[in-house]
């Protein structure tokens, strides 16, 4: 536990049934005031982790500290946290103002103070004019804001959000992502958000914990996760990546020479690798360089054949084939390379190269 962490999980596991370890020995420190997301595929244990922090579930083993106190066995109402549920769970028989004030009345805050705090919260989420409205008369986005206001009015140290925007359409979702971020930075409250949408996580989180099979694979800021994925799973899950089998053919200072079929590259790795090691290469589509001929003899450039081109708006996604590699995906920005966009056709010959250090090599475990 660090001095600034508001939530610390220590060796936390949760087993609902004999056969499923839903959360598997997690350690996580969440700093005060940070916006952290739990990201991962369906069933990886995100909601369970959130429910363990909230106190709706107890861990099978491990400890949970909040604000430096061991609250592993404390009930939900004994923790300085609040939760925004996926379906908002607003009270249909109460109007907007009474929904927001519900937690305050439970906490014994009433009268003028309650009215002031409710008004402040409604101002903050931009719905002061809806105080007396029925919740069923609100739009999805407005209901989402009310759920946020209701959870925040009690001034929790930590706000837990389980897929808070998943009920909204794509456009509104993007708008509410900006709103969430604004609210969080304005209030300075620690936000822990569950999502399986990597774009959402990358765009609004200070840090992201990528989960898989009940474990945390990597915790890092968005740029570090994207540029320095710790595992092939993270490389494949965050953004698009070509994951390719290769072999180490040498080393040069801190880079490794790797052969992927006919394609050569200088790859980075956090692991010690030796010549002859089998590796998995992770290569982002935007990191492959493509040139059309004629090319002077250059061993760093590999001949490839265009298989397919897909229009992606600002970029062109191109599938190519290289001897010894089934398929490679690369993205070509459309601005500076406009001539390619007009001319590239399936069957065309092109040249590929990879700048030193952009590919990452992971040891392939022996089968
Ligand atoms: N109450 C429960 N009883 C038994 N098993 C459960 C229970 N809740 C969750 N599980 C199991 O624990 C695992 C993790 O579930 P969890 O709901 O935490 O996943 P998730 O990452 O939130 O997935 P999703 O993205 O689909 O919401 C799953 O295998 C799930 O079936
Ligand atoms: Mg879930």
In short:
25% of the residues lie in helices and 37% in strands.
Whole-number radius of gyration?
A: 25 Å
Average pLDDT confidence is 92
* Percent strand: 35-45%
| Whole-number tally of structural domains | 2
Query: For this structure, what is the CATH class of the largest domain?
Result: Alpha Beta
Question: How are helices and strands ordered from N to C?
Answer: EEEHEEEHHHEHEHEEHHEEEEEEEEHEE
The N- and C-terminal alpha carbons lie at a distance of 38 Å
Please state the structural category: alpha+beta
- Per the CATH scheme, the topology name of the largest domain is Rossmann fold
Tell me the strand order in the biggest sheet.
6-7-8-3-9-10
Main sheet characteristics: 6 strands, mixed
- Overall shape: it is elongated
Bound ligand species: adenosine-5'-triphosphate, magnesium ion
CATH architecture of the largest domain, by name, is: 3-Layer(aba) Sandwich
């Amino acid at each position: 536990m660090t001095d600034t962490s508001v939530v610390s999980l220590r060796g936390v596991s949760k087993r609902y049934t004999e056969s499923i370890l839903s959360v598997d020995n997690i350690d996580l420190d969440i700093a005060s005031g940070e916006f952290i997301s739990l990201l991962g595929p369906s069933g990886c244990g995100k909601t369970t982790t959130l429910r363990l922090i909230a106190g709706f579930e107890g861990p099978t083993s491990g400890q949970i500290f909040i604000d430096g106190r061991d609250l592993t066995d404390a009930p939900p109402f004994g923790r300085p946290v609040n939760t925004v549920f996926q379906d908002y769970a607003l009270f249909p028989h109460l109007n907007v103002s009474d929904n927001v004030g519900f937690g305050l009345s439970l906490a014994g805050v009433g009268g003028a103070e309650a009215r002031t705090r409710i008004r402040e919260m409604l101002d903050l989420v931009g719905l002061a004019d809806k105080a007396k409205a029925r919740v069923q008369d609100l739009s999805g986005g407005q209901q989402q804001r009310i759920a946020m206001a209701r959870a925040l009015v009690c001034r929790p140290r930590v706000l837990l959000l389980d897929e808070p925007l998943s009920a909204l359409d794509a456009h509104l979702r993007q708008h509410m992502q900006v709103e969430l971020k604004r609210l969080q930075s304005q209030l300075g409250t620690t936000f822990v958000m569950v999502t399986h949408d990597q774009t959402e996580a990358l765009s609004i989180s200070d840090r992201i914990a990528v989960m898989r099979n009940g474990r945390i694979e990597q915790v890092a800021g968005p740029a570090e996760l994207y540029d320095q994925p710790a595992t092939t799973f993270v490389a494949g899950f965050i953004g698009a990546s070509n994951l390719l089998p290769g072999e180490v053919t040498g080393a040069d200072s801190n880079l490794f020479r790797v052969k992927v079929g006919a394609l050569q590259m200088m790859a980075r790795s956090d692991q010690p690798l030796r010549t002859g090691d089998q590796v998995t290469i992770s290569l982002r589509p935007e990191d492959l360089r493509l040139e059309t001929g004629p090319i002077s003899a250059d061993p760093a450039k590999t001949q490839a054949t265009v298989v397919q081109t897909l229009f992606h708006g600002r970029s062109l996604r191109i599938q190519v084939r290289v001897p010894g590699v089934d398929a490679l995906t690369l993205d070509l920005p459309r601005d500076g390379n406009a001539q390619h966009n007009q001319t590239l056709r399936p069957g065309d010959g092109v040249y590929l190269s990879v700048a030193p250090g952009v590919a990452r090599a992971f040891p392939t475990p022996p089968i």
